[in-house]
Amino acid sequence: MIRLYRALLRLYPTSFRLEYGDEMSAVFAQHLAGAGPLGRVGLFLGAVADVVPNALALHWDVLRQDLRYTVRTLGHARGFAFTAILVTALGVGANTAAFSVADFVLLRPLPYPEADRLVKLFERSLTGRGYNELSPADHQDWKRLNSTFEAMGAYADGAVNLVGAGDPRRLQIASVTPDLLPLVGVSPLLGRVFEPETDGDADLRTAVLGYGLWQSQFGGDRGVLGRSVNLNGAPYEVIGVMPPGYYFPSRGVEAWLPLVVSPDDFQDRDNTFLKGVGRLKDGVTLEQAQADLEVVAARLARDYPETNAETGAFLVRLQDEVQDRARFLLLALCGAALCILLLACANLANLLLARAAARERELAVRAALGAGRERLVRQMITESVTLAAVGGAVGVLVAVLAVPLLTRLVPTTLPIAEQPTLDLRILAVAALFTAFTGIGFGLVPALRAGRGGGFTALRDGARAGGGRKQRLRAGLVTVEVAMSVVLLITSGLLMRAVWRVQATDPGFRPDGVLTLRTHLPRPRYDDPLRRDEFYTRVLSDLRALPGVESAAYVSFLPMVMTGGIWGVTIPGREETRDNAASLRFVTPGFFATMGIPLLRGRDIEAGDTFDRPFVAVVSEALARRHWPGEDPIGKVFQFAFFERTVVGVVSDVRVRGLERTSEPQVYLSHLQVPDGGLIFYDPKDLVIRSSVPAAALVPAVRRIIRSADAEQPISDVATLADVVASQTAPRRAQLRVLVALAVLALVLAGVGIHGLLAFTVSQRRQEIGVRLALGAEPGGIARLVLREGLLLAVLGIVPGVVAAYLAARGMSALLFGVKPADPATMLAAVGLALVMTLAGSLLPALRAVRVSPMSVMRTE
Amino acid sequence: MVHDPADIAALLPLPSATFHILLALAAGDRHGYGIIQDVEARTDGALRLSAGTLYRTIQRLLEQGLITEPRKPNASLDDPRRRYYRITPFGTAVARAESNRLAQLVRLARGAGLLPKRS
Lengths: 860, 119
Known about the structure:
The complex is a heterodimer.
Chain A: H1 2-8, H2 14-33, H3 37-76, H4 78-107, E1 118-125, E2 131-132, H5 136-145, E3 149-163, E4 169-176, H6 180-184, E5 190-191, E6 206-209, H7 211-218, E7 228-231, E8 234-241, E9 255-258, H8 263-267, E10 275-280, H9 286-303, H10 305-308, E11 311-317, H11 324-358, H12 360-368, H13 373-406, H14 424-452, H15 467-503, E12 513-517, H16 528-544, E13 548-554, E14 565-567, E15 580-586, H17 590-594, E16 598-601, E17 615-619, H18 620-626, E18 636-639, E19 642-650, E20 665-669, E21 685-690, H19 694-708, E22 715-719, H20 720-727, H21 729-763, H22 765-773, H23 778-810, H24 823-849, H25 853-859
Parallel strand pairs in A: 4-9, 6-8, 15-20, 17-19
Antiparallel strand pairs in A: 1-2, 1-10, 1-11, 3-4, 3-7, 3-10, 5-8, 6-9, 7-8, 12-21, 12-22, 13-21, 14-15, 16-19, 17-20, 18-19
Helix pairs in contact in A: 2-3, 3-13, 4-11, 4-13, 4-14, 4-21, 5-9, 11-14, 11-15, 11-21, 13-14, 15-21, 15-23, 15-24, 16-19, 21-23, 21-24, 22-25, 23-24
Chain B: H1 5-11, H2 16-26, E1 30-31, H3 32-42, H4 51-64, E2 67-68, E3 84-87, H5 89-111
Antiparallel strand pairs in B: 1-3, 2-3
């Protein structure tokens, strides 16, 4: 019983237990002596009730005492406190930001009830590795024949013109089967969603609005239910509004319409355009469902061998449908952030080690005055945890500021908000990192200091900091330098790559060009003359605007739409394999507006109508490919259903984007198109070259388009320069993050070098003083310190460069031709590291020079 | 010895356990168990100090200088291995101040008719 009581006493702070434990046990023993067996148990229970609150109260007293002491001592060491807090804040901040974004994208369940049961369904090619969408007939059969799904639905992405609610607008929509929204499982904010009973009623023109659309176009009016809206020229009745924060299937979708599948669509099982979504029955695993659908697919393969012989099923959880690239980016970000955390920890450990060494005398004095070792260690841990806690709090602020910078790494294809909100989960992550930093790296120096204890430090002239401890610290610093060099070089190489991409000539002059899209809806614009009327009216009005130099329409802007490929054949020649060219219909003036140089011949003209000879303007590369060394003007080729005669040659444009090889281009007159054919290629992108700033021009352009067709929405307003810049946007986003981390690493390494040297100088004051007294030049002393800093830097830089080279070779695909060993980058990075070293060494060197020999000798 | 009245006033009112411990020590040096027994006897068993409360209070009284732990206890005391505590002059002053404060309260209570007049 008495032993139990002694165990109970361990709850007390050690100092108190050592002081009074024996006494208390003796008292307890005396109580026990007069009690029976039952009374003993009662006594022990009473002791528990006595010890627990008293021990807690004492711990609280000690903590308050230590905190007071910490605040006081840190007040005297402001530089140290500031550095430690800053280092922790940066480490915790970078990691909290990185992990909250990664958690948001990769780990957190999607915002639907029981989201883990939602899966995406694809047809899988049994011969190849690809998988694609479902045909309506297959979807219907999968739904009918499976035994593992509670419900199954499908959707197709689309866009419609919205007219009659404010300005005409182009809406991103999803056409959904009636079972889809109910199976996803989020209730509408207002009204209802489509109901499975209405399945097959193709004429049902109803619409469900997203919250954002309801707010922006309908002013959040609850009376919108039952109202008719004009979509693509047809009336739809609004039956529901979804709640805020509801996204499905991706963030951009603003409204949902019933999917209309014509009987024709059911005939062809190769006609795959539906994206399938299913909800698994409770308790069914993904593997079971996969096996189930494989059986269904095999049955369909038997029944419809021509189309389905090679078709299997492929399932993926909705949750896991994140692009590999996004996943890779986020994981790389987390990795880099962890590097920073380790750097911060190494720094903190260094700082605390130095402080502990510098305080050895103080600690020894306190130990001599009767403070127990445990008490001293506890005091030091209180100090490092306090620093870490303040650092962690500042780190959360850093994270709050950093998270918006990372939102470009959140894929837009996911049905989640643009950026994670700061919530308890993130705060918990921050607390975890803080505790890791504070306790993990405060403990070692504290224990080390506690071990040292003894009176040796009090002996006159004893020097603290043995050689081993110094080597450990120097090692930590060289690792910091190496890591910062790796980050510097890799981000430097990526920066060069971005510059190189940006310096690539797109083939046109993007400056001063405004672009926007007017997607003319069919069947309203089935007649090419009606389209021509629209184009002619808009373009001539535009050209009359002051400042407008020229304007034209084109099927698709380069880099925005990179496909649109057609095969070129030359009459009388065999068809070659490599004959693809990108097809664009244009109105006259396109080349002048875009700044694409016309090299020979003439532009498309207004006279190139359907009843005139069919003409084409081709790019240089096409002429070179098909008629090398010949004059291409007047040559004839078969393209887009007709024979076309070359009337002009223009220079090449990077249609596929700055980083990819593009097919040669063929430009055709928008009037020389078969009636009702090639709808996809209707000119829809308007380009305007003007001397007026784009923002000032837009209202006039809108007015002109409205007067040509009041129901025509305008979308994708942007300058051509923006379009080109968006080519490098993901790269730049990635680069920004990496550069920020590299700078952080550099600063941390600099702080590390400074800390170590400052400490060395303070430890060697006597030696320096003696040297100065014996006539050493101050310059020589400064050189001594600088040399030590440089040595640390070089020891870190050499392995850093090697590691960076290896890392760069691994990512050479991203470097756009910049060599992994690019000397300019390497030199710049090494130079920066050296500058940082000098900056870090400067203060300690100055302090060394300022050592006063007299005062040092006096203490000696 | 003159004590700063402000130092004394800062400690008042004393927690009841503290006051009782000071009362016990005012009668002479005692060890921990002795204090417990003394307080119990003095209050007729109404107040039984627990070991936890006792030693936490002792630690604070030592810090505040109200009691000391004499190196050599009186020879008359029985067990030389136990730790004994002694009230300091400052402790006596504080205990006296607390007693006066309580007496003052009792006078007030009488004046208000809450207690019978002294017969």
